[in-house]
Amino acid sequence: MSFEPAVVPPGLARLRRRLATYHDFLDELVRDIEQSTVDGEPLGRRWDVEGDPRAMKLAQLWAYVAEGVAAYTELAAGEAYLPTAQDWTDLRRLAGLVGYRPQQRVAAQGWVMVDTDRGAAPLVPAGTRVQAPGTPDRPAQVFEVAEETQLYADRAGLTATPVPVPAAPTGPTLRFLQDPGFRVGDRVLFVEELAPTGPAAPPPWSADWSTWWIWLIWWWYLYQAAMSAGATPLAVARVRKRVADLGTVVVTFDRDLGPLLSDPSKVYAAYRVVTAAGSARRQTAAVRIPATGAPSATNDKLQLAAFYTGPANLESAAVVLDTQLDELSPGQRVAVVDWGLGRGATIETTNLPACDVAEPTMHSRLDWEVAPGSTVPASRLQFGSQLAALARATITGRPVRVYVVGPRIPAQHYDLPTAVTGSPARLRLYPAPGAAHPVQRITLRNPAGTWDVLACTPAPASAQELPPPGGGPEAPRGLIVDLVGVALPLPADRAPASANLVRVRHGSTTVSTLGSGDASRPGQRFAVPKAPVTADLAPDGTPVSTLEVRVAGLLWPERPTLYGAGATDAYTTALGPDGAQTVVTGDGVEGNRLPTGRNTVAATYRVGGGTVGELPAGAITALLGSVRGVKRVVGAGPTSGGADQDDPRRIRRLAPGRSRVGDRAVSRADLADLARAFPGVSHAAAWRGAGPAGCPCGRTGEHVAFLRLGTTGPRPPIGAEVASLAAYLDGRRDVTVPLCVTAGTVTLLPLTAQIVPDPRARPADVVAAVVALLTAAGGPLDPLDRALGVALDRSDVMVHVHAAAGVVGVPVLTLGAAPAQGPPARYELVALAPDPVVTAVTP
After folding, report:
1. How big is the chain by its Cα radius of gyration, in Å?
2. Which one of 70, 149, 526, 612 is at 20 to 30 Å from 427 when CA atoms are compared?
3. What is the pLDDT of residues 502-519, one digit of tens each?
4. Angle of helix 763-775 versus helix 794-803 axis, rounded to 10
């Protein structure tokens, strides 16, 4: 026969090289027989093969055999090459020849917020099952608690707010971070304290002439400030209302404090007034106060005016009051106030208010002679140094007012913002969880009603709230935490929060008896009865199968291959197309044989995994079984990190890269190959230069950007997935070279097209053929087959629309909602949106 091997063009998904088909073989056989020469003439003149039923039956049978052999030859040849192999076993075998082992399903992971009974601190065992109920789009999904987790009562029922920020009050209300001790009806003295307007600290000391004179000026400034008025009295207000609010105290006064405390650059203080008294100003006579020694009553009378003009025999650091201060005890402070003529009444300094808050060095009782033979009890206060308010009143002749006051309270109003902004991003939790077990992660309910998970660390001690003054019981305070890797602004307007979180993994654990060992049989194989067997990601990003095989109760480790294993108790597995696994043991040379025993081979594994386990926040709502002290569970944040089993397309794409890179990144291309081989990664690119906006490195240096394959196509990864890939790459590269692993972006371009169908075809069929061609998995515009940083133009789409059966013309084709702004970025995937709008028009 004269058949020649077919010419095989490159790039075929299936190898086409069979010599001929059944009819070709049959026709060729009949023609060869009839053209054969017998006795000098063609055999066809004597024998009509096609007219002989018996001869034709034999020819047909031969053609069947020939076609089978040709088809088998083509199949065998196709299965010998990775791009054209169709059988799963052949693909797995060919990939293994270049060191690539198809990846099984990987389980999605996430967090669950546990709502506990009041005051309960339960222990949640590992393996506790929770469930996301089924929906019309997916069946119910089961998750298991990853590790035993201790919960704490003080981590539940928290309220999260941004850190309170100082602000000027806008009315009669002040929010204090600590309890000021004010009660309804109390009078409170507000003062404005001395606040230097110069530098807050001197420059670093140096013997150089250019710095030591600055030191002198700075200290001289402070000395002059100390010699001036210690404070300015603002007002005395009465407390009308107080409310405790998230560890702060909101106090409402009987007057508007906004105009009085409006300057944020000044320092204000508040003092609770215990009692008040004025300096002696109604008496017509007073005891003489010698310059030295104790006071003594004499017949010498001091006129009132003489007292206020500062007689030489009166000490300027003493004041005599018109009443006895029984409430003044040792160690208590008083506020000496000269209210002046009112704020803004005059520009003369001596007419402005003045105030000093000081502790008297001596408090003595006096008897004032109001009229001959008539005395009233009074108090004399002695101070260690001259008071500005008292000295000013002595000069101007004005009386002073003395208030016995409580502790100094900063008169600073604080607002609670509605969102976290700025750097570092900080959050306040109330009441503060105990410090014995530091909080590393919290969950926060967002405005949509679902829960977000935020990584955090306690803020430095300097940023924490100070305990309230006094020796009484400590009031509840808030805990300030620094958030890690959050997108700002973060809404946190009195959001419910909790730190009682447990980590869960997709799938459910099962135990199966695989069979019996037989020492006389090499290479025993056992099928794991349930599928798919899932894997988990280790902390370094390496996938680790959940399958554990025990032989006679002893754990045997799994190896990628038994080649070179020697005499060791180990096994390997063969992955099936449906996720099922087959356990393969050794032959006594490459791995030990199994010892003889009945039902001695058992397996523990988790069934599940894949992208079906990637669920939105709040999808997990059910606790399967019960845990003492646990009321309910709810999914906190989305579950992520799930990956489906490698399909034939992925194996064909990744196996060559594996043969190039091995398990170690040397070049930039190796980083991209390793990233693409990571479970769930659909696209990856590596480059040096500018990175995406907001990437951790500041947009310079070495970058690896990647996308993951979700249930609806490629998607940007979340923070936990970026961290997993970064850890995986760090274990396989030179970590002394900085590398920024970041998320890529996806741009989907909408398509609107009008086609002119062939008049002989039905327009609906032609439109359906165009849509099917544009959206087909594995088709010419499949997003999985497009590379990052490659533009998608109208011409790219136009050529494929024209290639659809029945299309005569394309008068209109619009790609994208707006004109393209330059070439795509290196980390950007540009693909066709999944719902193109195609209509048929008549010419």
Report:
1. 44
2. 149
3. 999 999 999 999 999 999
4. 130
Q: Is the peptide bond before 532 cis (omega within 30 degrees of 0)?
A: yes
Relative orientation angle of helices 668-676 and 719-730, to the nearest 10 degrees: 130
Q: How far is CA 353 from CA 182, 189, 195, 398, in A?
A: 25, 13, 16, 11
Q: Is the pLDDT of residue 367 over 80?
A: no
Burial class (CB in 10 A: 0-12, 13-18, 19+), 731: middle
- Over residues 45-56, the mean pLDDT reads 84
Do you find a cis peptide bond into 199, omega within 30 degrees of 0?
Answer: no
d(CA 173, CA 600): 76
- Cα–Cα distance between 386 and 367 in angstroms, integer? 24
Q: Which residues pair with 807 in a beta bridge?
A: 757
Domain boundaries, the chain: 22-78, 111-148+616-640, 154-163+422-463+476-499, 165-201+209-410, 508-607, 663-743, 747-840
Is the Cβ–Cβ distance between 73 and 632 less than 8 Å? no
pLDDT on residue 4: 63
Least confident of 384-398, 714-728, 735-749: 384-398
Going by C-alpha positions, the residue among 351, 296, 303, 360 that lies closest to residue 327 is 360
Count of other CB atoms within 10 angstroms of residue 468: 18
Residue 442: name the closest of 723, 717, 158 by CA. Answer: 158
User: What amino acid occupies position 439?
Assistant: V
Give residue 225's pLDDT band: very low, low, confident or very high (50, 70, 90): very low
Q: What is the pLDDT at residue 256?
A: 94
**Bigger pLDDT: 656 vs 344:** 656
What is the rounded CA–CA span in Å between residue 832 and residue 53?
59
CA–CA distances in Å: residue 568 to residues 150, 571, 582, 591, 639: 39, 9, 19, 5, 39
Among the four given CATH numbers 2.60.40, 3.30.310, 3.40.720, 3.30.300, the one describing domain 663-743:
3.30.300
Tell me how far apart the alpha carbons of residues 206 and 218 are, in angstroms, rounded to a whole number. 14
**SS3 of 392, please?**
helix
Query: Could you tell me the two tokens for 176?
Result: 């204090």
- Tell me the per-residue pLDDT of 374-409, one tens digit each, with 9 for 90 and over: 777 888 888 888 887 877 777 777 788 999 999 999
Q: Which of 55-64, 190-199, 703-712, 761-770 has the lowest mean pLDDT?
A: 190-199
d(CA 414, CA 165): 5
Indicate the pairing of strand 739-743 with strand 702-710.
parallel
pLDDT of residue 502: 97
**Phi, psi (deg, nearest 5) at residue 801:** -65, -40
- What is 476-531 written as a DSSP string? P--EEEEEES-PSSEE-SSEEEE--EEEEEESEEEEEEEEEE-TTSSS-EEE-SSS
